[in-house]
């Protein structure tokens, strides 16, 4: 069953809502339309959906699966010796947004990322936002992901988060909320691109009937932004993608992006630092590297600077980065800006650094480090979603309305043991989109992840990754927990 | 742009070479198995070494043929045993692993050909290659390998194409040399086997296993002579399967690599050329020791290339 709709009082992040009115009428915003009519975005698609039989959709779904398997868009499960590789389920019914809807979301995401980049540069230099009393010092320097070694490090153009994945949810026609910022190694963009490619192969007639904005220039934009952030004085920067290796679950994406950008895909042992410069070994001798687009976590990036047991990283890479000899994208120490406790300050960051009001709101959030917030949350555990500040992938959270008494009791103990490690949010009735499931076409909850690129400017391709919770009533869209993906269409605006 | 097309990351150079080696190995194993099957159906039990036993000795030297009840078990080991890296499906898995490492350098067509072959290979098992299934599997293997090889012709980087050619040539030398070394002792004493005789069938099996039966017939007509067959398999530079042609191809493919230790690799490759040139084909019937010398030289050349071109890090600077 779809969870109860909540009345959400939209307030600034400084005050959190004290009352939640829960109704028990299942109701989630259906992006396709209401019983009395379709929304504009789906006007073009509705006819096709009405005519396409379940057999045709199932056949296309299988063809999509075969395409993805042949392309190798699969991942192995750690610890599974059978060698079986999994696909992230792909839904053949696209999610559709109008140009106007997309414009609002994309401008809001860009604004957010500009503020977050300013925040990162600030906290690793003057910490003006702390001095101004906007964010407590403890929330910055006490954050486990604050990297002291980054203090004073100047990065090209002040950009720390070159690639940001902003997770956005919708609860109404014009009601969008940011769920989470991902500034470290956000993944999934290859699915955005491959989903589009698959849809064009499977349903070319649909595209002829709709003017869908293209997304395939993302790798070109990415390369341009990365090159723009090369160290000073480098005329023709060499960019590489640094991968943990082909056994990493996101390896397909690493190889995909390297190929699309026309750059080398390297592993740690391919690189070495000599004379303060980063080199890679080739059959023609060593070659200098200027920009490393790393898909390795901070901890494993450099055994001399971080985890000494890491065999994935490059000894001396961090020292070269601090010295300005190489750019690392995304920068080191970004985790302080994208965990769930810092998230609550992002609207304040927008006001402080940009002098603007946030275009996209945060989900109202309780910080359990605050005694009054904590007391309220523990009293309403059955109504709220409680998450670990440093959690990801949908793991380690409590979804109050679907939890048992025993689960809530156990979670209470965890919270009491370390309150600062948790935040809570109201249960949102995520919007739903028509999705092809076993029973036919039915609404399923979705979220949205646009990818914001920063370098010489802030840019977003007109498209995103839509993740869909395939189980009826589920709000968990993460692929690691059974979620799937959809192609996301942004309709080109027609001139009135 | 020229820079990007002419040099390869050292680790990926290795992956590319081994991709080609395992692809060649898969096809060679399948061809040997086909020849073994053909021969086993044509000769009576007890007529010399069982054909499947010889195939095992050549392709899976670590396996003691005496412990394998030919032919079904031998076929399963050679063709569909995933625990054997040199079985056909094992080899295709390693083709894929190496292709995956170099994925962003390959064309989409080549990657998909490799990946599709791997996906389909997982559907084959010992039951599936029983009876009529064996011929289906062997035909499927040949088609997959040739499709992949064709797609590899369009890899945009010349150095990558040369590495693929090098890997194929080195593997071909390795397989052919071991095949000759294992087969010739059973063929001693008959310089012109009579059609239909056991010796004739064994020579035909050897030529078929070397993919040289058609070439031999075009060159020599209907008469099978041991010295002519050996000349084709060892010294005929026109035949892409001969040891001489393969050694020349391997040597040529290294010319474009200019790293600091390139000279050492070329020298080692030159020793393979010399070892082939030193073989008197007809004399192999009496003494196969030159084949052991060639095998050693080929292995040493492969190691030299690994050391000179494939090792990354400060030592390669």
Describe the structure.
The complex is a heterodimer of chains A (496) and B (317). With 496 residues, chain A is of the alpha+beta class. Chain A is built from 15 helices and 27 strands. The longest helix of chain A has 25 residues, at 99-123. Residues 312-317 of chain B have low confidence and may be disordered. Chain B is globular, with a radius of gyration of 20 Å. In chain B, helix 2 (10-42) packs antiparallel against helix 7 (132-152) and helix 8 runs antiparallel to helix 14 (289-310). Chain A binds chain B through residues 69-72, 83, 246, 251, 255-256, 258-259, 262, 264-267, 269-270, 272, 274, 279-287, and chain B through 3-4, 6-11, 13, 82, 97, 100-101, 103-105, 108, 111-112, 115-116, 119, 122, 159, 257-260, 309, 311-314, 316-317.
Question: How are the secondary structure elements laid out?
Answer:
The complex is a heterodimer of chains A (496) and B (317).
Chain A: E1 4-7, E2 21-26, E3 33-34, E4 37-38, H1 43-51, H2 54-71, E5 75-76, E6 85-86, E7 90-97, H3 99-123, H4 128-131, H5 137-141, E8 163-172, E9 175-182, H6 189-202, H7 204-209, H8 218-228, E10 239-242, H9 251-261, E11 264-266, E12 271-274, E13 277-282, E14 285-289, E15 291-294, H10 317-322, E16 327-329, H11 335-338, H12 340-343, H13 346-354, E17 361-362, E18 366-367, H14 371-379, E19 384-388, E20 398-399, H15 405-417, E21 422-426, E22 432-437, E23 440-449, E24 451-454, E25 458-460, E26 465-468, E27 484-490
Parallel strand pairs in A: 7-27, 9-17, 10-11, 10-15, 15-16
Antiparallel strand pairs in A: 1-2, 3-4, 5-6, 8-9, 8-24, 12-13, 13-14, 18-21, 19-20, 19-21, 22-23, 23-26, 24-25, 26-27
Helix pairs in contact in A: 2-6, 3-13
Chain B: H1 2-6, H2 10-42, H3 51-59, H4 72-79, H5 88-101, H6 108-121, H7 132-152, H8 158-183, H9 198-209, H10 213-220, H11 226-234, H12 243-253, H13 262-277, H14 289-310
Helix pairs in contact in B: 2-3, 2-5, 2-7, 2-8, 2-9, 3-4, 3-8, 5-6, 6-7, 8-12, 8-14, 12-13, 13-14
